[in-house]
Specification:
Blueprint lengths: L2 E7 L5 H9 L16 E6 L4 H9 L8 E6 L26 E7 L15 H33 L4 H15 L11 H4 L10 E7 L1 H4 L2 H14 L12 H7 L13 E6 L8 E4 L1
Parallel strand pairs: 1-3, 1-4, 4-5, 5-6
Antiparallel strand pairs: 2-3, 6-7
Length: about 280
């Protein structure tokens, strides 16, 4: 079974450039918001030196490696859940992804516009986090009446109803369900975006890649937003959530979040990523 990773981020963060580097594709990566309209999907074989040896042992006619599918969707902006920019309609394309890769811009370049007018990685991550929370809240609010009705008839559905209600409470408080430490097994059928493992990729210039102070700053940002062993840690986006929250609401791998630094690639140079 292929592993699927959804790539998200603000417009002009470098999502399509990363997608091209990972998949050896050549999708449009332009210096204007929403260059990606239709989701791009690329499938990459996972290199494994053991496969040829196993093929010899078992006399296999074909070698089929495991694959990873990458899905590159349109940039998400503040207010996407309320219809800003392209809205969050494309999030449906990554609902069933196994993990989410969030690309965040670190580089400064006057020739590459930023939707907020300034480069602020921490704020950008909070923007995306908030929009994913809002999208998940809409999903839970739609499903909750159904499961509560079912739980009144079937006792075996009561734990799931409780998990749905707990997810609603956490999301309304500005917390992702993984950060809140909820029972992800009971919530699996909803394919919540905030329940997925995260990979944080910071897009920077090559000289910035050698800046240890900058890399530590990015590590600190990820440490602030990723789930901790304490299941009741507060959400980084909770303060802005209160301002944005509408008045009314209408194998699953267990992996810790990872931060990577990526230097920007030219049209002819592939991106290089290093774990921080």
């Amino acid at each position: 079974m292929a592993l699927t990773i959804g790539i998200v981020g603000l417009p002009n963060a470098g999502k399509s450039t990363l997608f091209n580097a990972l998949t050896r594709n050549d999708v449009l990566a332009a210096n204007y918001p929403f260059a990606t309209i239709e989701p791009n999907v690329g499938v990459v074989g996972v290199p494994d030196a053991r496969l040829p040896e196993l093929a010899k042992i078992y006399g296999s006619e074909r070698i089929i490696p495991a694959t990873v599918s990458f899905v590159d969707i349109a940039g998400i902006v503040k207010g996407a859940s309320q219809g800003e920019g392209m809205g969050n309609a494309f999030l449906a394309n990554i609902r069933e992804a196994d993990a989410i890769c969030q690309v965040t811009r670190v580089f400064t370049d006057e020739d590459v516009t930023h939707v907020d007018g300034k480069v602020d990685p921490a704020n950008d991550i909070d923007t995306i986090t908030t929009e994913l929370i809002l999208a998940d809240l809409a999903t839970v609010e739609k499903a909750l009446p159904r499961i509560e009705k079912e739980a009144r008839i079937k006792k075996e559905s009561q734990p799931k109803a409780g998990a749905f209600a707990a997810a609603k409470d956490a999301l309304e408080a500005g917390k992702g369900v993984r950060t809140a430490g909820l029972d992800l097994e009971e919530l699996y059928e909803l394919h919540l975006l905030t329940a997925k493992p995260y990979l944080y990729v910071f897009n920077c210039d090559q000289d910035e890649l050698a800046n240890e102070e900058l890399k530590q700053k990015m590590r600190d940002i990820v440490a602030r937003v990723r789930p901790s062993s304490s299941t009741r840690s507060s959400s980084p986006s909770s303060s802005r959530w209160r301002r944005m929250r509408p008045a009314s609401s209408s194998p699953r791998w267990a992996s810790r979040s990872r931060a990577w630094m990526c230097w920007r690639a030219s049209a002819t140079t592939r991106s290089a990523c290093r774990a921080t």
